[in-house]
Amino acid sequence: MAKTFISIFMFLFLSVGMTAQEVFKQILDSSNKVLMDNHEDVGIRKIALFKVDALTYLNTQVMAEINDTTSELTPERMTHLIAMRDSQAYYMYDYINSFLKEYGRMKRQAEKDRVLRIFRDASVSNPLYNDPDRQFVLAYYNREDFLTQFSLDTDWVKAFEEAKKKLRQ
């Protein structure tokens, strides 16, 4: 009986969660819209592609933990995971926007390089999952054809704090 109740509760929770993925879903939807807009600038679409990939990576990691049958998933843990995903999505969005603002403000190439280096380093030095597949999570890291040269495996909250701190120095 208890397992049935928990199963029904989880189904309802997931159903509501799937329709109310506020921050995560909004950022993913808007990024996908930009990505698919053939009239948009290629550079803007590449930024949107990074956002989609970073959000997809984040969601994959969260869903793997939710679907992990070796541990018990409590309603509290489920709520925490969804909230963490929303928070990470928000900070990733803010991180990229702050990077673009700072980068765009710089006049000289040396200043632009410094801003890029600060944000790149903060991204790679603050992993969220410590994913051993470095080639995958660093797919954008050394891509000079992408402005968003960040790791997919990033704790965006910590990385954002580190980048802000280093920008003030």
In short:
With 169 residues, this protein is mainly α. The chain has helices at 2-19, 22-36, 42-66, 75-105, 109-124, 134-137, 156-168.
Describe the 3D structure.
- Helix content is 72%, strand content 0%.
- It contains seven helices and no strands.
- The chain is mainly alpha-helical and 169 residues long.
- The protein has helices spanning 2-19, 22-36, 42-66, 75-105, 109-124, 134-137, 156-168.
Which stretches are low in confidence, meaning pLDDT under 50 for 5 or more residues running? Answer: 1-20
| Backbone shape | globular
Give the helix/strand class: mainly alpha
Strand content: under 5%
**Total number of beta strands:** 0
Major β-sheet, in short? none
**Tally of helical segments:** 7
Instruction: Please provide the ordered H/E string of secondary-structure elements.
Output: HHHHHHH
Using only CA atoms, what is the Rg?
Answer: 18 Å
Span from first to last CA? 59 Å
Helix content: over 70%
The averaged pLDDT comes out at 90
